[in-house]
Design goal:
four-stranded mixed β-sheet; five-stranded mixed β-sheet; Immunoglobulin-like
């Protein structure tokens, strides 16, 4: 289940402004409150107001490993990001082990949303514990669904990611324009297909058509690139549409678009579209 966890990231960024961005960057330089783990010693002097304690933490596996393993770099090249899964969602099959490997300092993995009955806890220690370059931990994703996560010190400056875990029998890859239209309430289930089980990836300029296959759904926009202006289905949030309704939007701005059905968001009716440059 994917609860309504917080405002969209563009709203957080605009509300935070320069002050939060500065605070996040200073955290990357050592002034993060909480414990700093994953290093024998702290080679840098913390900022004067820091309460940082250095802990030694070994690489950790949260569940037994499977044959398939994917690596996600944390803070690659000093960027405040996850790669892959940051710029666009990562897609893996159920049973895949994902290893998170730190390539710079002062990061963690905090879980925002995950399907029931998944129990991924993110990096050990929770929000207040961050780790240094060289640290790693892994988790095997057994429950299909969408997992969203962030780095606590850097969420407002882009440190977030998502993993789509596909069920048995569904290819662990992006849907494409060949899989259009998007069916809304596909097979009378509470999902977008593609979008919910597998994210959709299309080139810039693609017109994406949504076709209703069951009643009482809409398309509302949660997150989109800064210069995009996708509004979702006509009307306010309470306006729902029934089987047979059709709606389309042409995506001109590259980036990741997250959308949902308001009536069934809590039941997991959430989807993602990645629009890429040709």
């Amino acid at each position: 289940m994917l609860p309504d966890r917080r405002p969209d990231r563009r709203t957080v960024l605009k509300a935070s402004g320069v002050a939060l961005a500065t605070g996040a960057l200073s955290g990357c330089l050592g002034g993060v409150r909480g414990s700093l783990a994953g290093s024998e010693t702290d080679d840098r002097d913390p900022s004067p107001d820091s309460t940082t304690d250095v802990e030694v933490a070994d690489s950790e596996t949260t569940t037994a490993a499977s044959d398939a393993t994917v690596t996600v770099a944390v803070g690659p090249g000093g960027r405040l990001a996850f790669d892959p899964s940051g710029d666009e969602p990562l897609v893996v099959a159920a049973g895949t082990t994902v290893e998170f490997v730190w390539e710079s300092d002062t990061h963690n993995v905090v879980v925002d949303d995950q399907p029931d009955p998944a129990d991924w806890a993110g990096s050990p220690g929770g929000t207040g514990t961050v780790y240094r370059e060289g640290y790693s931990f892994s988790h095997t994703f057994e429950v299909p669904g969408i997992y969203e996560f962030h780095c606590a010190p850097h969420e407002t400056v882009g440190g977030s990611g998502a993993i789509f875990v596909t069920p048995e029998g569904v290819a662990a890859e992006y849907a494409t324009a060949d899989d259009l239209p998007v069916t809304v309430g596909a097979d009378h289930d509470q999902q977008f297909a593609p979008g919910t089980v597998r994210p959709l990836k299309v080139p810039v300029g693609t017109e994406v058509e949504f076709v209703w296959e069951s009643d009482d759904h809409n398309v509302r926009v949660r997150d989109q690139p800064d210069t995009a202006d996708w509004q979702g289905t006509p009307g306010d949030d309470s306006k729902l549409y029934n089987e047979g309704y059709e709606y389309s939007n042409t995506f001109e701005v590259p980036g990741v678009y997250w959308f949902y059905c308001l009536a069934h968001r809590s039941a997991g009716m959430v989807g993602a579209i990645v629009v890429e440059e040709q």
